[in-house]
From TrEMBL:
Family named by the database record: Belongs to the LysR transcriptional regulatory family.
Annotated ranges, domain HTH lysR-type: 29-86
Highest rank taxon of the organism: Bacteria
Cleavable signal peptide: none
Pfam families recorded: HTH_1 (PF00126), LysR_substrate (PF03466)
Name of the molecule in the record: Transcriptional regulator, LysR family
Keywords: DNA-binding, Transcription, Transcription regulation
GO biological process, one term: DNA-templated transcription
One example GO MF annotation: DNA-binding transcription factor activity
Length: 315
């Protein structure tokens, strides 16, 4: 007869604790290659997946290869520049991508412990969004909640919050999906700007139609600005077209022409006299910068807490 020490309830508690940690370890070991495979498909390649997950490319490739060997099937057709899903790979992705996200979130929550925020927050922001204030908000949040991790994607592409597994998207005046949730972050004031050297050459325009050498945004943003900022007034014909507020500002500061930009992006240049706002009576309307979430169910405690933090930080 084997003798044991402790009460039966204590033994059950210890046994349950052991089983919980054993199951958690086993599940993560099995989950990693599948999760890596899903990230490769979503990112469109091994290098992009490595960048998005903060994992060496060699590790990403090794995990996918190990998954193929374990399953005994080929999941990806590879070349030096691209890849394509095999039929088996497509079926695995279709069936695994959703459950992998749910399980990863659940494991993150379990690992964090009672009352402790932990796990991954996937955040996407516009490509030329100012970095200093966001970096400050993330740093102060992670100092207070050391078990929280971040993946940040800088892109002007409007990503699908569900398919791309995004927790929070920083968007300017976006029209969310029916199930998405929006929260106001701040309002953006706009103005036309030109450099002192350009004004000396060209003179100061009196209305929008007189603007020359306009530095135009790309068509989607241009249409948005005409509708929501200018109230239906057409922007001037572009002398150049760019997909970056930062590039438009730098072209303007170098005397190329006139740009329509967020005021916060040009405050320093105006204070130093390198740029001047134009057309004060143009009646430009502010636009709203939002935090967008896939749906209420995905606003887990760490995501909600960071949303509260970043809103307070930006104010």
């Amino acid at each position: 007869m084997i003798r044991t020490h402790g009460t039966s309830s204590e033994q059950e508690r210890l046994s349950g604790k052991f089983c919980h940690h054993h199951l958690l370890f086993w599940t993560m070991m099995k989950l990693d290659p599948i999760q890596t495979f899903v990230e490769v498909v979503r990112a469109g390649g091994f290098t992009a997946a490595a960048r998005r997950t903060g994992t060496p490319r060699s590790t990403v490739s090794l995990q996918v290869r190990a998954l193929e060997e374990t399953l005994g099937v080929r999941l990806l057709k590879r070349s030096t520049r691209s890849f394509a899903l095999t039929d088996e790979g497509q079926r695995l992705y279709d069936k695994a991508s959703g459950p992998v996200d749910v399980l990863a979130r659940a494991l993150d929550d379990l690992q964090a412990g009672d009352g402790v925020l932990g796990g991954l927050i996937r955040l996407t922001v516009p490509a030329d969004f100012p970095t200093a204030l966001l970096a400050s908000a993330i740093t102060s949040f992670t100092q207070a909640h050391t078990a929280v991790r971040f993946q940040i994607m800088w892109t002007n592409t409007v990503m699908d919050l569900v398919e791309d597994n995004i927790d929070i998207a920083v968007r300017v005046g976006a029209n969310p999906a029916q199930t998405a949730i929006e929260r106001r972050l701040l309002d953006i004031e706009w103005a036309f700007y030109a450099s002192a050297s350009w004004l000396k050459r060209k003179g100061r325009p009196e209305n929008i139609s007189e603007v020359e050498d306009f530095i135009s945004p790309q068509p989607i943003l241009r249409a948005y600005l005409e509708k929501h900022v200018l109230g239906g007034v057409s922007l001037p014909t572009g002398a150049i077209e760019v997909d970056s507020h930062a590039m438009a500002r730098d072209l303007m500061l170098n005397g190329f022409g006139v740009a329509l930009l967020p005021q916060g992006l040009c405050q320093d240049a105006v204070m130093t006299g390198n740029a001047e706002p134009l057309l004060p009576h143009a009646g430009l309307r502010p636009t709203r910068l939002n935090l967008t979430f896939p749906n209420r169910a995905d606003m887990v405690p760490r995501v909600r807490a960071f949303a509260d933090h970043i809103c307070a930080h930006f104010r």
